[in-house]
Amino acid sequence: METPPVRRWFLSLALFLLALWALGRLYNLLLWVFLAFTLAAALDPLVGLFARRLPRPSAVFLAYLMVLGVMGLGFYLAAPLLILQFHHLGALLPMVLRWLQDNLALSLPDLASSLASSAHVAGDFLLRVGETVSEMVLALVLAVMIALEPHLVARAAPYLPGSGWTEVLEDTWRRMGYWARAQFLIALSFALLFGGWLLFLGVPSPFALGVLGGVLEVVPFVGGIATALLAFLVALSAKGPLVALLVLLGYGGIALLEGKVLIPYIYGRTVGFHPALVLLAIFAFGKLFGFLGIFLAVPMTILGAGILKHWRR
User: Fold this and answer.
1) pLDDT, tens digit, for every residue of 71-124?
2) How far apart are CA 219 and CA 243, in angstroms?
3) Superkingdom of this entry's organism (predicted)?
4) Rg of the chain, C-alpha, whole Å
5) What is the model's pLDDT at position 188?
6) What is the Cα–Cα distance from 262 to 140, expressed in whole angstroms?
7) pLDDT tens-place string over residues 240-293
8) pLDDT band at 16 (very low <50, low <70, confident <90, very high)
């Protein structure tokens, strides 16, 4: 006859396997829910600022309306120029390939291989944008609903085994929000600095390349290199080797600024991770969950590290 501990062990194993099965079936939905929590954490300080003088629902509405309004206004003002420059960039790429083939004796398969990373990442992102607009809207709505309840994450602590979860969840919530805000600032600074440098050098479609670089900066250490390579090839075919070299030097200066100031501060002092661990997490979650996994690799690592730290106490 089975003893109660054995029955409990089999029950725990069955529940664990059931959870793994559910995770495998619903992981895409869970990623969007996690994105909603990350967005809510990012805007939580702004909501808290408005909540000092306004009721919580009004503060949430005003905070999200302000952020969406600023983003919408920026897109409205920049869209005509960006559409024109992206169209020009698309028309310019075949000319770049022909120039390199004629002057450097590179075959098209070789060129396609050398540009694979940047083209694949950029193309995959653009396709994902078109496919996931509705999911983004739902994630935003869910983020608003989460923001309406202060300290919602900490309320899950009593339902978790053991004690001390409130502090862990609150700390994880703060670190996720800081990462999201800082990552946005890194992407924006890269787009402005790199796009401005390309404009100064007279490289075709500078703002399109800058925005592309800012978007790809959601993949730290990799996205900027892909954009710099593309800008180098465009400058090499349109302006010559000197300007192309200056493009790389400018990117090197921006990367040095990020590598010595921004990224160590964000991933080291605040997030608490070595940059190598961040890169490994990005590759791992990207392999498991695709582009959304790449974007959410750092906050998911923050959550996992918080849980592991609690269990090791």
Assistant:
1) 888 777 777 777 777 777 777 777 766 766 666 554 545 545 544 444 454 555
2) 26
3) Bacteria
4) 23
5) 85
6) 27
7) 888 888 988 998 888 888 777 776 666 655 566 666 777 777 777 777 777 667
8) low
As a residue count, the chain comes to 313
The one-letter amino acid at 297: A
Of 299, 220, 225, the residue nearest 262 (C-alpha): 220
Amino acid identity of residue 303, one-letter, is L
Residue 85 · residue 207 · CB < 8 Å: yes
Tokens linked to 43: 């805007």
Decide if 244 contacts 232 (C-beta within 8 A): yes
What's the token pair of residue 47? 């909501």
Paired tokens of 102:
């004629």
Tokens representing 55 are: 């009721």
DSSP secondary structure letters along the chain: ---HHHHHHHHHHHHHHHHHHHHHHHHHHHHHHHHHHHHHHHHHHHHHHHHTTS-HHHHHHHHHHHHHHHHHHHHHHHHHHHHHHHHHHHHHHHHHHHHHHHHH---HHHHHHHTHHHHHHHHHHHHHHHH-HHHHHHHHHHHHHHHTSTTTTGGGGGGSSSS-HHHHHHHHHHHHHHHHHHHHHHHHHHHHHHHHHHHHHT-SSHHHHHHHHHHHTTSTTTHHHHHHHHHHHHHHHHT-HHHHHHHHHHHHHHHHHIIIIIHIIIIIIIS---HHHHHHHHHHHHHHHHHHHHHTHHHHHHHHHHHHHHHT-
